[in-house]
TrEMBL record:
Keywords: Phosphoprotein, Two-component regulatory system. Gene3D superfamilies: 3.40.50.2300, LytTr DNA-binding domain. It comes from Alcanivorax nanhaiticus. Coiled coil: none annotated. The modification 4-aspartylphosphate is found at residue 53. Residues 2-116 form the Response regulatory domain. The lineage of its organism: Bacteria, Pseudomonadati, Pseudomonadota, Gammaproteobacteria, Oceanospirillales. This is Alginate biosynthesis regulator. InterPro entries: CheY-like_superfamily, LytR-like, LytTR_DNA-bd_dom, Sig_transdc_resp-reg_receiver. Residues 141-245 form the HTH LytTR-type domain. GO terms for molecular function: DNA binding; phosphorelay response regulator activity.
Length: 246
């Protein structure tokens, strides 16, 4: 069994690695200091299990688990944390197990045994439920591209544009497609984005203004992109009110 150890504290990672080495037929193939690194290392080393801390800088374990569920052949997640109030939420993202620090060898071996019994089909099903529940607001949007799982910081997103089944995410470095609904994105990120059309959400932080285009149609200008996005007539008044309050 291939294991990735993820914790923001080096001493905690070292202790977990020593415990893993004492277990039978288990090896540590990589380590990470936060959720984002865990995703990168998972795609490179393809572990069977990720031992994941919850409270970490840049991206915490809960969000990382949600993103990891979207990759092909996702690993089993076992949370290792000192904060037992996270237990309920951990199981909402369908972790295989939840271990309180300091982790004992016996508890670790039981959790690894449980992970070993799960096949890839079952893990994929857990991942599907993770993506449907969306327990809280993410800091990143994840998209499956030819490069693997690509992470886009929400703070860098200019707009979400719906087109039939997919949504285009325009951000500082380009565009990606995601298989999510505009309605769900609006519910999750409504404080950061405003709807300007039935098929478009734009980031409040990048709006420079609204202007009148030809034939009485309005458009919105966004900092950092030349493209103008159409504002539907039903959303003009609402957008104007939002802009006045900024």
């Amino acid at each position: 069994m291939r294991v990735l150890v993820c914790d923001d504290e080096q001493l905690a990672r070292d202790r977990l690695k020593r415990l893993v080495e004492k277990a039978d037929n288990v090896e540590v193939v990589a380590e990470a200091a936060n959720g984002r690194e865990a995703i990168e290392q998972t795609q490179e080393h393809r572990p069977d299990v990720v031992l994941m801390d919850i409270r970490m800088p840049e991206m915490d374990g809960m969000e990382a688990a949600e993103h990891l569920s979207k990759i092909d052949n996702p690993p089993a997640i076992i949370f290792c944390t000192a904060y037992d109030e996270h237990a309920l939420q951990a199981f909402k993202v369908h972790a295989v197990d939840y271990l309180l620090k300091p982790v004992s060898l016996s508890d670790l071996e039981m959790a690894l045994s449980k992970a070993r019994t799960l096949n890839r089909v079952q893990l994929a099903e857990l991942g599907k439920e993770v993506s449907e529940e969306k327990p809280r607001r993410r800091g990143h949007i994840s998209a499956r591209t030819h490069r693997g799982l690509e992470l886009v910081p929400v703070d860098e997103v200019r707009y979400f544009l719906a087109d039939q089944k997919y949504v285009t995410v325009c951000f500082s470095e380009g565009e990606v497609l995601i298989d999510e609904t505009l309605k769900d994105l609006e519910t999750e990120f409504g404080e950061q984005f405003v709807r300007i059309h039935r098929n478009a959400l734009v980031a409040l932080r990048y709006i420079e203004g609204m202007e009148l285009a030809t034939a009485g149609h309005h458009q919105v200008r966004l900092r950092g992109i030349e493209e103008r996005l159409t504002v539907s007539r039903r959303h003009v008044a609402g957008l104007r009110k939002v802009l006045q309050s900024l």
